[in-house]
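Render this sequence as a predicted structure.
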Amino acid sequence: MTFDWLKKYQHNMQKPADYAEKTLAAYRLGMKAGGSIVGVRLEVQADGCPAAQALFPDRVYSPDDAPRVPLPDCPRGNRCTCVYRPVMTYERPARAADPDK
């Protein structure tokens, strides 16, 4: 894919302390504006920490309910390889944020 380098960069970059708040706020704003974003997904690398691996891989979260990265038990701290990705209206999520759905 053309943007593989960008995806790799985002996973490997050192994340600022406010990464989760700023990223989720941007997605929340996109949702409120009536755009195509319907939620967020936490993208976990194959070599992600055990805490990240324990999450459901395709769960779609509201920005208010998404786990904050780095996860509390992540040994990598601000070098956490997890990143948030928007879930768009044209995607069919495998799991909803509510496990009963």
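Summary. The first helix runs from residue 4 to 12. The chain has a mean pLDDT of 87.
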